[in-house]
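Example record for the data management plan.
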Amino acid sequence: MNKLTLYLGAAIFALSIAGCGSDHTTPQSNNNEVESTSGACQLLQELGDCGACWSGDTTCTYGDITVTEGSCQQCQAMVALYIQLCESGNTDSQEAIEAGMTCTDLDE
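Corresponding structural encoding:
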């Protein structure tokens, strides 16, 4: 019973720190270190915070880059893809990325 109480207490503590919709729930890995005018970097900045929720694993693909993340309505997977594209120096426009990107929920 003590372990259950410990785990439950830790989970409640983690949720209270993270909070739904807080500015710190989705890492914006190295956004300032890459060219912010690329389409992928702009999409990343526009998407913003995904919130602290989970609806299942999602795979997002654009060109030869594929990422799979635990996501809430595909948000975290899209962020991970935009980060990969942004950090790799992809210069495609926002429109091209949005038109060519596919995201699939794996847990349906």
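Summary line stored alongside the record: The chain has four helices and three strands.
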